Amino acid sequence: MQRLAGKVAIVTGAASGIGKATVELFRSEGAVVVGTDVSEGAEIVADAGTDQVGVGSVVDIEGDSGQKLSVEVSAVGGAGTVSPTSPLGSALLGKKLGETVEVQAPKGAWTATIKKIS
After folding, report:
1. pTM of the predicted protein model
2. Please, which of 53, 66, 89, 110 could form a disulfide with 82 given CB 3.0 to 4.6 Å?
3. Domains and CATH numbers, the chain
4. So what's the pLDDT on residue 99?
C-alpha cells in the first residue's frame, strides 16, 4: 500500500544523508517529491519521466465536454502552469497516459483524459 500516493513533498537537504533517505522513502510510498539542496554536486535523485505525471510534466488533457488544455505542473508558477497542490495539479500527479482524472474544483467536479505527457 502506498501511503503517500497523490501527495507532494518538498524535501530540503535532499542530496545526502537523512534528506536523501527521506526522498527515497517518500517516493517508495508513492509521493511526488521535490528535493532541494545547496551542496555542490547535488543531483536529481529521480525523474518522473514521461510515463506518469510529476512536477515539471507538461500535460495535454481533454475535458469531458471536448475542451483541450495543455498545462505544466509547476511548484514555481508562471503562465500556463498549475500548482501540484491545486485541484487540477493534484488530480494529475502520478497518473498515466490515457487515464481519466476527476478534478474537484471549487465550481464543481469535472473529468478529463490525459492525452500526452512530456
Report:
1. 0.62
2. 89
3. 1-46 (no CATH), 58-117 (3.10.50.30)
4. 95
